Amino acid sequence: MARILTGIQSSGRPHLGNILGAIVPAIELSRNPENESFFFIADLHSLVSIKDGKLRHEYARAIAATWLAFGFDFEKNVFWRQSRIQEHTELAWYLNCFTPFPMLANATSFKEKSEKLADVNAGLFTYPVLQAADILLYNANIIPVGKDQKQHLEMTKDIATRFNLLAGEEMLTLPEPQIDERIMTIPGVDGQKMSKSYHNYIDIFVPENELKKAIKKIVSDSTPLEEPKDPETDITFKLYSLVASESEVAAMRQNYLNGGFGYGHAKQALLECMLEKFAEPRRIFNHYMENEQELEGILVAGETKARAIAQETIGKVRKVLGYSS
Ligand code: ATP
Ligand code: MG
């Protein structure tokens, strides 16, 4: 039996990149009866970028509602908020002391974010250590993530190996990333990686007129309407090909190559395709956003299950470190 674990930060509303890069593939894996799935809301990680508590609470709700909107079975699996299980922060501190400073300093994601973000705090720097704690606390084997997380997973393995050496046994399970090669890093409306913190994302749950506005913002080159266009480099086409069926994508490719088909037409097709494909998730998402108590009940039940496992791991770790009586 494989234990699958993945988390989404509550640093913004979940976007198409999170959904196609992490949520949908993770839910597919969770449908295999051989697997046990652990999905959580990384609301401690989000403190790195979001200081407004009300906003974070809202985002955490939206992320929970998104998992449910895409069919996550919360009864069979484990579903929780990271902040409600104190063992995450405790293990993160222990692991900090097993993490070489240069490994964090050389992390690609840290370098990229520290150049772009105004607030470069120590939380951003030690982010991969808290992530390692999230994974190792639950002895997860498989971590379905987007390509941007590959290096962080390597760090988790490195940190766990160092701790296990001290423990004298494989106390912390070494996880493997599962990266769906078909799902590339999904671009945002500006062509960079779609990210909550870059504000370049498409939120599929907003009302139709807002979704239309977001799609309008997708960058394109200035090829005139009559001329053929290159589907391989165009962002609208890329996003369309991730959402539409194979035959629809083939027809769209032909439209691009033929010319006489403008980027405005492509964007309208993308909008219609999203509204159709995501009609049911949009309905379920709104249901949970409007019924806060129901959503809270689901999370609290999940947290009881998560806590029991986390406490077991932390008990063993404390013993190794001489913190237990
Ligand atoms: P932030 O900007 O705050 O880092 P994010 O948008 O990158 O937010 P995360 O919460 O860091 O989202 O990532 C959650 C999951 O979504 C991870 O598994 C990550 O690999 C995946 N993911 C995030 N952005 C993309 C993307 N553009 N394409 C594919 N997968 C993505
Ligand atoms: Mg990220």
UniProtKB/TrEMBL annotation:
The keyword S-adenosyl-L-methionine appears for this protein: no
GO CC term, one of those recorded: cytosol
One BP term from GO: tryptophanyl-tRNA aminoacylation
One Gene Ontology term of the molecular function aspect: ATP binding
Broadest EC class assigned to this enzyme: ligase
Record's keyword terms, sorted: Aminoacyl-tRNA synthetase, ATP-binding, Ligase, Nucleotide-binding, Protein biosynthesis
Name assigned to this protein: Tryptophan--tRNA ligase
